[in-house]
Amino acid sequence: MMQHHLRRCSATAFTMIRCLCHFPTSISVSPRLEWKCPSPRLFSTNEMSQQLPANLVGVMEQRMKLIEQRSVYLQGQINQPDASPEEYSRANKELHKLEGTMNMIKELRSKQEEIDGLKSLVTNSVEEKDLREMAAQELLEALEEEKQLQHKLFRSLLPKDEADERDCILEVRAGTGGEEASLFAMDIFKMYERYSQKNGWKFDAINIMESALKGYKEASGTISGPGAYGKLKFESGIHRVQRVPVTEKSGRVHTSAVSVAILPQADEVDVQLHNEDLRIDTYRSGGSGGQSVNTTDSAVRITHVPTGTVVAIQDERSQHQNKAKALKVLRARLYEIERHRLHMDRSKLRSEQIGSGDRSERIRTYNFPQGRVTDHRVGITHHSIEDVMEGESLDIFIDALLLREEMDAIASFAS
After folding, report:
1. What's the domain of life for this entry (predicted)?
2. N or C end of the chain, less CB within 10 A?
3. What are phi and psi for residue 230, nearest 5 degrees?
C-alpha cells in the first residue's frame, strides 16, 4: 500500500519527490484516503527552486567529491604512456560516462564561486550603496540558479536502471479462468497496444495463440519507443478480472487471472547465443492456436539448453521470420534473467514476477460490474474502467508506481 511506502521513506524523501516528480490526475487512494493531484506536467521554476534538505545536500557533496577524485584518477590513467590498450579503453569509457555529471559539477562549483564573490560585495561597507544593492539582487538570482543546478545534479545522481530507455517485449498469458481468462488476456494485450499508440510507440505482435472463442491463450509483441521499458516495467505481474463472462447464462460474476511480463529488449551484444546451446525444432502451425495455419513446417521452437528456456513462434508463414522473432524473444528472456541475477536487491526473478497465474496472486484488479480498477501495490482505485482498457488512463497507475520507485531511490540516496 502507498501508506506503507510513505512510512518506509523519510519525510525528506517525500518532500523532495513532490518537488521533482510528476503526479497523476484525479486519483482515489482506497476508501480512507483521497488525492487531489494536478495534471501531469513539468513543475515551474519556483516549485523546482525549493531548497534541497541539508542532509541531502551533504550526501550529494560527498558524492561530488568522490566523482571529482575518480575523474582525476581516470585522467591520469589515460595520460600514462605505459598504459595498456585495455587499461586506456576501460578508463576512457568510464570517463566518458562521468562527463555529463562532471559538467554539472563544474557548473555548480562555478555558480558557488560567483555567489561567494557577490556575498563579499554585499557585506563590504566600503563599496557604494548602489553597487551593494545591485550585488544583493544578483545574489538572489544566483542563489536561485544554484538551487536549480542542485536539483538537476541531484536527479542525475539517483540510482538508475540502465534498461529504462530500451524497447521492450510484452508477454500476456491466460491464467485461471478458462475461456474467460483467454478473452481477458486479449483485452489486456489490446490495452497495451492502444497505450503504445497513445505514446507514439511502435507496437508489433510477435505471436498469438488463440482459444476456441478467439481469445488469447498466449500473446507477445514488441513495443519500440523512447523509454518504453522504463514506463511499462511495473506492469509485470498478475492482472485479475471480475466480470460476467460471455459464456455465463445466470449472470454470475466470475474471477479470472492473466499474467503479464514486460522484458527489456536485448541485442546480440547483450546476449550472445551459441549454436551448441540451442535446440531448434520446426513443425506445422496448429489448429485454432495459430493465426497462420499452413501445410509447411513454418513454426519454430527454440530451446536454450543451459537454462531450459523455450520460445515457440508460429505467427508468420515464413520459418525464417518465425526463427528471427523467436531469437529476439529468447534474448530478451535471457537478458532479463541475467539482470535479475545481478540486481536481486532491486528486482524479483521473472518466474516470481509472473507467478503461477492463480487468481489469488494479483497486482491489479479490473472490476467491470463496479466500473473500477485498483492497483494493490499503491492502493489506487480509478473509477473509469473503460478509459483504462482504452489505454487512456493507464498513466494514473504507471505514474504512481514510478513515483514510488523515485521515492525509494531518494530514500536509498539519503541513507
Report:
1. Eukaryota
2. C
3. -60, -35
- How far apart CA 312 and CA 386 sit, in angstroms, is 33
List of residues 6+ apart from 391 with CB closer than 8 A? 191, 192, 193, 194, 195, 196, 197, 198
DSSP codes of every residue in 189-209: HHHHHHHHHHTT-EEEEEEEE
Ranges under pLDDT 50 in the chain: 1-49, 288-293, 345-359
- In 3D, which of 133, 111, 110 has the Cα closest to residue 121? 133
Q: Cβ(148)–Cβ(48) under 8 Å?
A: yes
The Cα 276–Cα 322 span in angstroms is 20
* Model confidence pTM above 0.85: no
C-alpha cell at 58: 551533504
Residue 122 corresponds to which amino acid?
Answer: V
The confidence score (pLDDT) of residue 170 equals: 95
